[in-house]
Design brief:
The protein has three domains: 243 residues, ABC transporter type 1, transmembrane domain (ABC transporter transmembrane region fold, Up-down Bundle), CATH 1.20.1560; 267 residues, P-loop containing nucleotide triphosphate hydrolases (Rossmann fold, 3-Layer(aba) Sandwich); 151 residues, no CATH class. It contains 28 helices and 19 strands. By secondary structure, the chain is α+β, with helices and mostly antiparallel strands. The two termini are 61 Å apart. It is a multi-pass membrane protein.
Amino acid sequence: MAILQQQATSPGHSSAAILILKEGEMIGKGTFKELSMSGIDFSSLLKSDDEQTDKTASGHVTSTSGSHHLQRSMSHEPQSKLHESSRHRLHSTSSKSHEVINGNLRFSVHESMRGSELSLTSVGTIGDEFSAEEVQLPEEEERHQGTVGLSIYYEYFKAGAGIIKFLLLVFLCLAAQGAYILSDWWLSRWSNEEEARYSALERHNALLAEGYYATNITIPIVDTNFNVSVFSGIIGGVFLFGILRALMFFKVTVDASQALHNTMFASILRSHIGFFDTNPVGRILNRFSKDIGHMDDLLPVTFFDFTQCALLILGIVGVAGVVNPWVFIVVAPLIVLFVIIRRYYIRTSRHIKRLEGTTRSPVFSHLSASLQGLHTIRAFSVQGKFIEEFDNHQDLHTEAWFLFLTTSRWLAIRLDWLCAMFVAAVSFFCVVAADSLNAGLVGLSMTYAMTLMGMFQWGVRQSAEVENQMISVERVLDYSRLPSEAPLEAPNDRKPPPDWPQHGRISVQRVSLKYSTDTPTVLKNISFTIEAREKIGIVGRTGAGKSSLITMLFRLVEPTGSITIDDVDTLQIGLHDLRNQISIIPQDPVLFTGKLRRNLDPFSNHSDDALWKALGEVQLKNAVEDLPHGLDTEVSEGGINFSVGQRQLICLARAILRNNKILMIDEATANVDPRTDGLIQQTIREKFRKCTVLTIAHRLHTIMDSDRLLVLHDGEIEEFDAPHLLLQKPEGLLRKLVEQTGKTETTNLIEIARKSYENKNRDDINEEVQASNLAEIMRAISQHDVAMTIEELDELRMAESKEKEAENGTGDKEEDIEDAAEKVSREESETKDPVQDIGGKDEDLNVDVGEMDNGVKSVDGPTGETPVGDVDDEVESEEKSKLLADNGKKADDLDVDVGKVDENDEANETENLLSKDEHRK
């Protein structure tokens, strides 16, 4: 790693020092000239930055939920300040390249590309063909309107209990409240009986004291033991039903919360990838933290209090009405006022509560993004801006929360007024009808009415709070109904074969893809075929649809059209069957918290020996052995205890263990040093040479040796052929992309493509030459004119050799070749094929034709397989001997010498022989 240290001494002069770091130690320091003379090869450490086409002149624009805040914060910088800092950076870089940072765009302009001095004012004119990719911003969080419907309550209790449990819960609630009221009523009745007995006994004693020997006063008999027993039984029922009600209620609510959490979790895991593109992580965390927290902690208690208060209030009003029916005259208008006040409060409180919930999400999102980008924030020294933005989010949430508290106080005052009017009405009617009322019942009604003062206010507030808390249930249910991906497992009649895929041939026909119904189509009716074991590079400008190909093949979003792998339609099989058979090495390596063993082999399908072998193949075995716990080493969150290169190598080892026939590579070496880059490229070529490999290129030199390149533009296939052939098109898109890298790099890339093309096609050309020569030999044998055929071949070679020396003689040579070919063809038509006659008797004819090119061991002829080698000294059949004798041939020793092709002139010989073969045909 090289660090450029700059010290500005004056506006027009600056000095620079380069620090070279390796494995945490500084191995060199000095100027560019000093380090160049020292022999340290540090230039290779910097070349990767110049080769990233998607991050240079093509203007790579990226936006994620985590970096969105940083981009917005940086946009607040004054333009003059950005202009000044950018100009300073322009003059501070080396003479090899200029770097311009403006907002989110980063351009690397090579020395060979500069036609004039680059300034910040000319940045906007760089690359007229560049069109920035449309940034997909997060959608605004949806807020429901109106009251929480009864369906939400139904889904809540349905998740926690079935119909039997729910009915049992209702019975226990009513029984507990009935037992509570019954206990008070029995106590009032017992008090009236005791009062009547003591009153009669007191009058009887008073008469006796006046001198009466007897009275006709009846003294009631009160069975105290019976009353005590009944009262004790009622109190026991209150205790029993109360305990059972509480246990059943909290059991149902906790089960409902757990069930809804699991449902939401499963729904999010199975949702389309587009859901995560439009919903920030803070919004999702808010559902799992705050909303689930409300359902676990607050909602059960609040709902239980509301149920208890509601039943108690109904009991109080009922008892007061039974004791004195005149109370209902006042209760009716009070109920009307209560309904109006509560509806007004609930409507306002509900909106405020929803507002509080939505203003809470940005707080979580901003905090999460700040933690993820903490290094970047400190590097740009924008801590103050992020603190200010966090305070703004926090203030907005606090405003909503304070508004919620004030509405609760507003309701409390008005409910106290209603309770005071109800108590006054009960007292007034009890005084008016005192003569006709039972003292015990009057006392009971007045006691209940006084209790209502605090209970009514608390009950109404709890009812409103229950509806507010049910909003959390509503939000959780929203995420429990997300559109799901295709089934993970297909029916047995649509499952692929167990050994699928065997080859890795991919056929895409008329496929289109869009991430959602309201977004544009990113892949537009594309069709292509990739043969087994073929190495395909995928290139294109930003937004061309390269990453969408990964989405298409893995079915992260369901495409339209037909995608087959080894003749199996991948759109008809389960996602597990498809994704398990395709390996991917991402650009950003992903490691999960847990042991290193589980990161390499998540499903425990391989032995430790296989794991160590895979680590050895990516040269990580020694590094892992040096760890205290080896394969059981704990991986920190995001794998931060490993370097980026090590994380990428672990992902590569994971792909090696999978050993799938198809491998997707999203430029696995874009963020690693050149040494790791070379190691990964070498490992991919060696370990995956028998696999179909698709590489999404961010640096062109990594794919120039591919079999073919798939060039995308605006979601369509612009070009698809060998790199060398595509570079021959001056107006081709690939040619333009290559030319943007500079003259030196363009020459290098063209040379890589040419050499790769020649190396891959040399064997095919040699095979064609051998097949052509062999066809000539067999034709001559079948016509019993071997000597003439060899002579003709010699003439053809002489003619072709002279063609290189004299351009004017080209026509004569071609005529000689044509005459020879016509002669052979004419004799072939005049002569009957004796080999077929011999083959009819299922006998073999062994003929020695000497050594030809690389050696031809056998050829398939009309008789089946006719070996070409040494001919047996004795003829196995008299009929064969007679045929050969008739044509003047000796069967004792038939030696055909075709000659050898000079290895130094192999390429020219191949081209000329192909031309000859075309003329012969």
